[in-house]
Amino acid sequence: MKLLKHIFDFYLNSSIHVALSCYALVRVTFHVFHIQYDEPMALFVFFGTIVGYNFVKYDALVRVKKKPIGNQLKIIAVLSFVSLVLVGYYFFQLKQITQIVSFGIFAITALYTLPFFPNRKNARNWAGVKIYIVALCWVGATLVLPYINAEIPFIPDFFIKCIQRFVLVFVLILVFEILDLANDDPHLKTVPQTIGVKRTKILGFSLLVPFWIVGILTFTFHELFINLIMVVMLMLFIAFANPNRSKYYTSFWVESVPIFWWLMIVFL
């Protein structure tokens, strides 16, 4: 049982789970825009998420705080390096415009982690902007990149889906911020720190309602039903979120919402 827990913790700590969530959202994008499965694109996002998230999570620990590197972190470093090689491999199979846009997303990720400007902290520590940067990166990686790589003309539906995807990720991050309330630096001015947990939950509920209603314009009845299940699921996660919840509440269950969404599309 202890071994299984170690394996499960490694699965979460190495960002494989969050990468699978991003992969699932790419597959959702393929579905809603009727794009044939594009393996290089999907795996580029999957392995890119592992590299990006591990860089964001562990760079400060190793580079700034000089924490000793344990065995798990060494394995994560090897996994990240292999993922980086695979990112490079799949990168050269993408369309040129996709490559250019992916550099933009990489630049935002780097800005989020590294202090590029003199006497300024990295963007991760800029008051009030963290949630918007993360949501934009997710929209860019899981929707914009697959869309432009498929060389589909820009239509109003694309922009509607971008807004919906942004709202979805924004709400997911709200749950994370509620659980991290006790540990986050007060200067970050996260949403719960600014307006309180109760109002943050109300904000999450109020965003999910138009998220589903707008879908009436672009989704089929079957897709609306699946989206309704996902919205109810997210509302329950918001309702029961509190700073005393286990880390698995967000790092596994909340981050599984995109995976459940994709699986419902496939099997329901």
Automatic annotation (TrEMBL):
Claim: Membrane is one of the keywords in the record: yes
Keywords per UniProt: Membrane, Transmembrane, Transmembrane helix
Highest taxon in the source lineage: Bacteria
Transmembrane segments: 12-35, 41-61, 73-91, 97-117, 129-148, 163-182, 202-219, 225-241, 248-267
Protein name per its UniProtKB record: Prenyltransferase
